[in-house]
Amino acid sequence: MPRSTLADYRAARKCLSHRWKVSSLRFSTKCVSSSRPQRILFSRSLFVDSLFLIGGGDFHHPPTAEVTTFDVVEKRQRNVPRMTQARCRCAVTSTTRMILVCGGCSGRWRSLSSCELFQPAGRRWFLMPAMETARLDFRVVWLPDGRIFAIGGWDGIQLDSVEMLYRDWAFDGETTGTWRQCSPMLAARDDFAAVALHGEVVLVAGGCMSSGEWLDVVDLFTPPPAAGNPHALGQWTNLQPMQSAPRSWSIGVFSGGVVFIFERKSSKIRRFRPSLTNANVSSLLIFCQYGVYFLLIVILRQIYKVLFPFSLTAR
Prior knowledge:
315 residues; alpha+beta; 3 helices; 4-stranded antiparallel sheet; 20 strands; Neuraminidase; 13% helix
């Protein structure tokens, strides 16, 4: 969306009920035993009825390409083919058919730009186009229309950059094309929560700055279209902040019309219910882009009627 519509688009905040609520979460102490050695700094993804633990490592052991999956219904461990690249602190997202793994950290703690895609049905890994910027501790969001966004992270410094790639959910082959830059975030950060709302916009909450300060800010990203204007960058809008800043990395989930923010070092859940629907989003964007031009046409027509009243009557 053009920057000229930023003021108009800030009216979107009135369509959201920014009342964050905090509640406690109690976890069951029943665990599934594993014969595999313990590892940390891995990523996770819930796919259908299975939990995937992807990569991992620590300061004493190099990153691994190992992928472990646990069936949460049968409560048992299954073997999964290893990734093509060992990595930890990577970003993971999934659809109803695929699991996407991007970036992360390799041996010698170097950030990665490579991406790969896992097809659970065929038990195969596909290589994906590499991102323009290597990054770790970032978030990746995959919208239902095929747009993929790599957001923020760390590569020596905290990043505010955002990249976009397109891949259809129903496509099973390797992806061609390249990532392209989008509008950067309003603040550089890593270890934040990112979640798609109604499959159209992306909500980003919290995160850590280069100074070590944890943020309570909440931003809304209206992404550029998958096709059309190649120069469209999308637009970020700052929303009302949370009541307090999460003190660790967090995970965002959008379910039943409610946004849930889970913190690693706390049993608390931050949640709020956005009232913005698909129709609200589309109508608001249309107004922002074309409302001013429509109003200008009406004004010019009234001026024309005053200056040339007989020409209109003659017609």
